[in-house]
Amino acid sequence: MFWFQSWTLQLAKYSSRPLQRLLCEAVRNLPVLTLFTKKPCPLCDEAKAVLEPYKHKFILQEVDITLPDQMAWYERYKNDIPVFHLNGHFLMKHRVDIEKLEKQLLNIELQVGGKR
């Protein structure tokens, strides 16, 4: 085990630039799932727990609609949170619809794969 850890550290030490570049490219290609929320929001906490197994498939961006610079979102979603957008487009509200999320993530993956 120690040998493997040592070897991994050496590999990371000497190849950090290419690895860092690969990680940045991977993150750049991940879709952004935006969660419109406010505090407290038990449904938002529940939704994040449901999303936990899928967190490697997207970047989760939380927007607190009660902040002064988010008033437009507050007016729009104050009675509907949690609300989710995927890559800037409305996806779902109130509860996580896993089937819908998986379908949209697959569509995005196929679109990105087709552009390579």
Automatic annotation (TrEMBL):
Superkingdom assignment: Eukaryota
Keywords: Electron transport, Transport
InterPro entries given in the database record: Glutaredoxin-like, Glutaredoxin-like_YDR286C, Thioredoxin-like_sf
Signal peptide (from-to): none
SUPFAM superfamilies in the cross-refs: Thioredoxin-like (SSF52833)
Any matching Pfam family: Glrx-like
PANTHER family hit by this protein: GLUTAREDOXIN-LIKE PROTEIN C5ORF63 HOMOLOG
Family: Belongs to the glutaredoxin family.
Designated name of the protein: Glutaredoxin-like protein
Organism: Gekko japonicus
